[in-house]
């Protein structure tokens, strides 16, 4: 069980680094502008680079949260 915990911890570290890098690289400095949120898509067209980065940010953030929940559950089991 300890080996699986360490593997998941390493995976969570990689996801966290990718998430932080993606947020910093795609940030436009308008976080407090109150603009529209969400992912925009064009009708019958390919999603733009910004749309793809938004989707990837959401996926990485959700994956990180899920990994942290699993690690917390396993960590509590190991400490019993």
Notable traits:
80 residues; mainly alpha; 2 helices; 0% strand
Assembly level: single chain
Tell me what portion of residues adopts beta-strand conformation: under 5%
The gyration radius over C-alpha positions equals: 17 Å
Q: Which outline best applies?
A: elongated
Count of DSSP strands: 0
Give a short account of the largest sheet.
none
- Distance from N terminus to C terminus (CA atoms, Å) equals 13 Å
Q: Note poorly predicted spans.
A: none
Number of helices: 2
Helix content: 55-70%
How many domains would you count in the coordinates? 1
Briefly note the structural class of the backbone. Answer: mainly alpha
Average pLDDT reading:
83
Order of helices and strands: HH
Task: Tell me what the structure shows.
The structure is a single chain. The chain has about 80 residues and is an all-alpha fold. The protein has one domain (about 1-25, about 50-80). It has helices at about 1-25, 50-80. The radius of gyration is 17 Å and the shape is elongated. The model has no long low-confidence stretch (mean pLDDT about 85).
């Amino acid at each position: 069980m300890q080996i699986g915990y360490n593997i998941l911890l390493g995976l969570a570290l990689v996801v966290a680094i990718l998430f932080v890098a993606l947020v910093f690289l795609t940030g436009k400095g308008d976080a407090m502008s109150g603009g529209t949120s969400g992912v925009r898509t064009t009708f019958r067209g390919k999603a733009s680079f910004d749309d793809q980065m938004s989707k990837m940010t959401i996926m990485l953030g959700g994956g990180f949260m899920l990994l942290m929940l699993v690690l917390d559950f396993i960590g509590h089991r190991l400490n019993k």
